[in-house]
């Protein structure tokens, strides 16, 4: 038997491992199962190139609980180690980077990707174990070895009587970590970290009904007797998940089935998927799914799982996946992502940026293909995906460049146009006197119904743009299309939305208009309304409330995160009150000598205009209803 001290530059590394990585101590199981997987895959490679003269067989990794003995076993049938290799890899190499690790990464050591990259993966066992044993037999014709360490730098190494190839690690679970002897806890961890590892992982057994062979059952009408119940290995993982296969090997049902495997509690089917598969200039595979998203920006992110060679790492893919796609679901697997570094480094890393750009391009190409192949289906799904695409247009220049081919602008009556199609459709009827194309839009079909009706009566198309970031997007579209302007349908009277050459004639003289304006301004609160006299059609509403496009848009952008926007988010609501000087009511107000009745008419007309804009609420609404009943007594 050999005894000795582990070659470690820090006197006692184990308490430090436990301290720095304690919040993530559950990853010990991931690390140990990963080590077993690596040992098995390396053996497969050595056999394939003729360096290992042994049968590969059908190796598995087994995890066993011995609750009574307070032990957890992780057993593989991989390469195994000789006593010399245990001395080299466990006692020396594992700690070659220990001091550097502690100095450089102690602040970010909670990043679960760090530990394995410094050869410390095996020693994560000491986060939950007071003593660890390794019993290992190499594929080489050499005796088995038994290594024991109690969490101090002292270890023992002696021969073992193990005859089968591979390694068994035995963790003597510490008193503060006894929950890792619970079957439910180990099942949870294996499902979280090892669900798709490439070697089958056995955790206990389960009962399964199998059909009996001929001669094993008596003739019977009872068909149940054709089957017998047997105990089989409980393989907890899927070693060949969908993303490891070629897209040509998978059907639509395969993709949906894998989605259910990823999200067993998600009952809605995904709208469509995007299969990522690239091996140059970096390795990346994965499947992204578009779930139904609607218009809510507060969607739960962190639903994309990041794997490294089929080992789960994190569901925080920020920096790797473009931000606008973090609202999707799915899997990304890449051995080329440097997981052992800080997020700021990751965001500045050139390879990671290339991966992000590739994903952006692949998603844009897929969306264009879906749009081209089945436009009708794409239009049906538009409302469920638009928030992602609109966010992508704002945040990713490369996505914005490609977006014209598939981003849609629906009208209030259910027609869908790309931007180029919209320009072509509106050109004849909605070009103003300055040659600018005016896109009229509504943000709420019900609240803006009367304004939409007025515009459609004039033969105008009204586009429905109702996502919370639309003010930012139309600002960008206008900046990039100098011949285009977006005007919300309630921002002015219909006659003024698209300025033409002709001016209407007013029934009232300039002097009468000024008098009427003064009367209205004394009654209407100046803090909220700017009174304007307009000569409109005599059948048009006498009072119309509009909100100036620029002011409202700036306020919306400020409220949805427009970088301050001069603090406009705190501005009081300002509206234009358009008084139709050609209406009968305008003449009545002007000609009424009874000041009380004049005030009554103005207030009633103002409240009716507010009602049409859904602005009449609370005390004002109560007063309006009372006043209206008095009028019809």
From TrEMBL:
Record-given protein name: Molecular chaperone HtpG
Any Pfam family hit: HSP90
Alphabetized UniProt keyword annotations: ATP-binding, Chaperone, Nucleotide-binding
Sample GO molecular function, one term: unfolded protein binding
Chain residues that bind ATP: 31, 35, 76, 81, 96-97, 167, 343
UniProt cross-references to InterPro entries, sorted A to Z: HATPase_C_sf, Heat_shock_protein_90_CS, HSP90_C, Hsp90_fam, Hsp90_N, Ribosomal_Su5_D2-typ_SF
Membership in a protein family: Belongs to the heat shock protein 90 family.
PROSITE patterns: HSP90 (PS00298)
Organism per entry: Flavobacterium noncentrifugens
Domain of life: Bacteria
Residues spanning the membrane: none
């Amino acid at each position: 038997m050999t005894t000795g001290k582990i070659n470690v530059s820090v006197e006692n590394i184990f308490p430090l491992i436990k301290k720095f990585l304690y919040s993530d101590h559950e990853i010990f199981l991931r690390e140990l199962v990963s080590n077993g997987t690596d040992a098995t895959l390396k053996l497969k490679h050595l056999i394939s190139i003729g360096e290992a003269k042994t049968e590969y067989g059908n190796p598995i990794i087994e995890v066993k609980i011995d609750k009574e003995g307070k032990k957890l076993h992780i057993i593989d049938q991989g390469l195994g180690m000789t006593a010399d290799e245990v001395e080299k890899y466990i006692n020396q190499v594992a700690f070659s980077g220990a001091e550097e690790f502690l100095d450089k990464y102690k602040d970010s050591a909670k990043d679960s990707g760090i530990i394995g990259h410094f050869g410390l993966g095996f020693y994560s066992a000491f986060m939950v174990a007071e003593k660890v044993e390794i019993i290992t037999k190499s594929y080489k014709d050499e005796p088995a070895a038994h290594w024991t360490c109690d969490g101090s730098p002292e270890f023992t190494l002696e021969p073992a009587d193990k005859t089968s190839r591979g390694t068994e690690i035995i963790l003597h679970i510490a008193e503060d970590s006894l929950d890792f002897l619970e079957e439910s806890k180990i099942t949870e961890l294996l499902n979280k970290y090892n669900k798709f590892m490439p070697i089958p992982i056995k955790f206990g057994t389960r009962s399964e009904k199998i059909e009996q062979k001929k001669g094993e059952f008596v003739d019977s009408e009872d068909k149940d007797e054709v089957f017998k119940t047997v105990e089989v290995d409980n393989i907890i993982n899927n070693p060949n998940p969908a993303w490891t296969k070629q897209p040509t090997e998978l059907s639509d049902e395969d993709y949906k089935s894998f989605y259910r495997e990823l999200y067993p509690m998600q009952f809605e089917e995904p709208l469509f998927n995007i299969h990522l598969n690239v091996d140059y200039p970096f390795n990346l595979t994965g499947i992204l799914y578009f779930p139904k998203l609607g218009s809510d920006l507060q969607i739960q992110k962190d639903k994309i799982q990041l794997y490294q060679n089929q080992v789960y790492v994190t569901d925080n893919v920020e920096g790797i996946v473009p931000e606008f796609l973090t609202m999707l679901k799915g899997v990304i697997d890449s051995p080329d992502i440097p997981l052992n570094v800080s997020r700021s480094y990751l965001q500045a890393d050139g390879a990671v940026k290339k991966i992000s750009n590739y994903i952006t391009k692949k998603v844009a190409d897929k969306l264009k293909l879906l749009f081209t192949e089945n436009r009708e289906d794409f239009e049906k799904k538009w409302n469920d995906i638009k928030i992602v695409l609109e966010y992508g247009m704002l945040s990713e220049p490369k996505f914005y460049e490609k977006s014209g081919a598939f981003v849609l602008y629906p009208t209030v009556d259910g027609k869908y146009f790309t931007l180029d199609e919209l320009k072509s459709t509106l050109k004849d009827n909605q070009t103003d006197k300055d040659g600018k194309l005016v896109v009229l839009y509504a943000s709420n079909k019900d609240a803006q119904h009367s304004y939409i009706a007025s515009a459609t009566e004039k033969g105008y198309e009204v586009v429905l743009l109702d996502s919370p970031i639309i003010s930012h997007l139309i600002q960008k579209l206008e900046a990039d299309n100098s011949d285009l302007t977006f005007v919300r349908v309630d921002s002015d009277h219909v006659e003024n939305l698209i300025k033409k050459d002709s001016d209407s004639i007013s029934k009232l003289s300039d002097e009468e208009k000024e008098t009427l304006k003064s009367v209205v301004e004394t009654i209407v609160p100046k803090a909220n309304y700017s009174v304007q006299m307009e000569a409109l059609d005599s059948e048009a509403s006498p009072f119309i409330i509009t909100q100036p496009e620029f002011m409202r848009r700036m306020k919306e952008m400020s409220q949805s995160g427009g970088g301050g926007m001069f603090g406009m988010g705190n501005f009081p609501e300002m509206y234009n009150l358009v008084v139709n000087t050609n209406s009968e009511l305008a003449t009545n107000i002007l000609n009424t000598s009874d000041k009380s009745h004049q005030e009554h008419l103005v207030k009633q007309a103002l409240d009716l205009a507010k009602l049409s804009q859904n602005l009449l609420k609370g005390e004002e609404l109560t007063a309006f209803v009372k006043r209206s009943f008095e009028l019809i007594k």
